[in-house]
Amino acid sequence: MLKQQLQQKLQQKLSPQQIQLIRLLELPTIELEERVKHELEENPALEEGQDIPDDPEQTIDDSGDELSANETDVDLSLGDYLTEDDIPDYKLREIRERAEQKEDIPFSVGQSLNEYLLQQLGLRDLPEKEMKIAEYIIGNIDDDGYLRRDLSAIGDDLIFLAGQEVDDQEIEAVLKIIQDFDPPGICARNLQECLLLQLEKKEQTPDVKLAIRILKEYFDGFSRKHYDKILRALNIDEAELKKAIQEITLLNPKPGGSWESSMESVMRQITPDFIVEVHNGELFLSMNNRGVPDLHINRDYQEMFQSYTSSKNGQSSSQMRNAIQFVKQKLDSAQWFIDAIKQRQETLQRTMETIISLQRDFFLTGDESTLRPMILKDVAERAGYDISTISRVSNSKYVQTYFGIYSLKYFFSESMSTDSGEEVSTREVKKIMKDHIDSEDKRKPLTDEELASILKEKGYVIARRTVAKYREQMEIPVARLRKEI
User: Fold this and answer.
1) Own/partner pairs for 246-249, CB < 8 Å, 24+ apart?
2) 325 with 74: CB under 8 angstroms?
3) Given CA atoms 289, 290, 291, 292 in this order, what sign does their dihedral have?
4) φ and ψ of 345, to 5 deg
5) pLDDT tens digits along 155-201
6) Are 19 and 269 in contact (CB under 8 A)?
7) Which of 238, 299, 395, 430 sits most deeply, having the most CB atoms within 10 A of its CB?
8) 80-84, 253-257, 308-312: which range is least confident on average?
9) Percent with pLDDT over 90 in the chain
């Protein structure tokens, strides 16, 4: 049974301005530059460069109070154009145009792996049927250079998509042709086949032949580094095995990894958002705003709006009022954007100053062991912001120091207590672990239990499973896989 009732409740909503401000806060410097350029192109009331007003006390809001009584039906406040529940059409158009521009941005791209293989395929004199099979196989090679699809699935696709009925033997024959292409190891179906393809193209020395035999007959034992079993099974000494393993380790496990688009290369280039310098033992913070210009309101638009609001005749046409509405709309949008950029800079500045004060020793010395335990809550309490704000500031932001460029997230770490009760950062523990692993005897690597004992002797009470967790976070394999001969 349906009931109709009244209910009173409190709700908290983010206005479109607040949402836009949050998005600006999350942007790194390089993306902020693009955002400012886009706003300059879209909003004629916004200009770059410093502006010195003729009358500093005169503002847009003051002129807005001079509207005549006959024109009170024209509300020129930003609220009517940007409410909590509705975004104006011009903003929606800007968002759509921005998305379309991002899709249509031209950039230079070098020859891709797919194009390189198709170029080699064009040099082969193959029947039309085999050529179509080869083109489809090349189209299914992933970025690493592997073909990770079953031949039967490729055959099914060729039937449905190209109308070519082929069996697995025909596909296998074409696959062998592609595997003969450059780079060596291309179009392999697994790591074992990839390494074997590369070895078979090398000069067949005794070491290479032994390496081929190891990969064919004892690949599982080799991948698990069970060298003792391989020595006994092949009846060879350690010197021979070491030379064969060296031949294998020189191979490329990802033959397609060297091909990448120029856009991917650009995306890996890091532009720091902050610069921290040391002079006479003092730390100095600066924002990297070289690509972000100063912004101000267009003077012509201001004067146009002021001249309209100062007139008292009330004889303006509907067309003129619509034009002035548009001008006021653009002026408000420009002023909001300028204020939002200033607020973003202030938030980033204060947050980074707080991080520097908490991690002062690291910024002076660059020693990872001097990093103090620090979580988002610590920075939020000192900076006077919400934890979510600190999280957004630290996301995708980088700081340049004398010791390198670091992500802001690098400075956040959990804490643990020593046997004396002192709180230390988990990064300090990880650094000690890594130093011992780097200097260990590779014939007998340190196990997690042995690492836990070493840390306990140094005053860090830590369980073996915690050592294993830290080792995995540092992407260090287990002791068995670090073993060498």
Assistant:
1) 246/207, 247/199, 247/202, 247/207, 247/208, 247/211, 248/195, 248/199, 248/211, 248/214, 248/215, 248/222
2) yes
3) positive
4) -65, -40
5) 888 887 767 778 888 889 989 999 999 889 999 999 999 999 999 99
6) no
7) 430
8) 80-84
9) 13
345-348 contacts at long range (C-beta below 8 A, 24 or more positions apart): 345/287, 345/289, 347/25, 347/385, 347/389, 347/393, 348/25, 348/273, 348/274, 348/287, 348/393, 348/397
Six-digit token string for 462: 């830590």
| Residue whose structure tokens are 């011009």 | 90
> Both tokens of residue 431?
């650094």
- Structural contact between residues 228 and 480, judged by C-beta atoms closer than 8 angstroms: no
- Which contacts of 322-327 are long-range, i.e. CB under 8 A and separated by 24 or more positions? 324/74, 324/76, 325/74, 325/76, 327/45, 327/301
Residue 354 has pLDDT above 90, yes or no: yes
With tokens 């070519």, the residue in question is: 164
The tokens for 189 are 């179906």
Angstrom distance (rounded) from CA 250 to CA 232: 24
Token digits for 326? Answer: 């548009």
Distance CA 35, CA 340 (A): 12
Strands 404-407 and 46-48: unpaired
Rounded Cα distance between 253 and 188, Å, is 10
Query: pLDDT tens, 411-442?
Result: 888 777 676 666 677 877 888 888 888 888 88
Instruction: Tell me the percentage of the chain whose pLDDT exceeds 70.
Output: 80
* Cα 191 from Cα 184, distance rounded (Å): 13
- For the stretch 285-308, pLDDT in tens is 988 877 777 888 878 777 777 776
Residue count (the chain): 485
**Which whole number is the average pLDDT over 380-406?**
89
Collect all residues with Cβ–Cβ distance below 8 Å to 88 and sequence separation of at least 6: 81, 82, 329
Q: Which of 398, 409, 380, 392 is nearest to 23 (CA)?
A: 392
**Cα dist from 448 to 455, 464, 466, 468, whole Å:** 11, 6, 9, 6
Cα–Cα dist 306/308, whole Å: 5
Helix (H) or strand (E) holding 400: strand 398-401
Residues whose CB is less than 8 angstroms from the CB of residue 347 and which lie 6 or more positions away in sequence, other chains included: 25, 385, 389, 393
Which pLDDT tens digit goes with each residue over 58-67?
Answer: 444 444 444 3
Cβ atoms of 428 and 359 closer than 8 Å:
no
What pLDDT sits at residue 54? 54
CA dihedral 172, 173, 178, 184 (to 10 degrees): 80
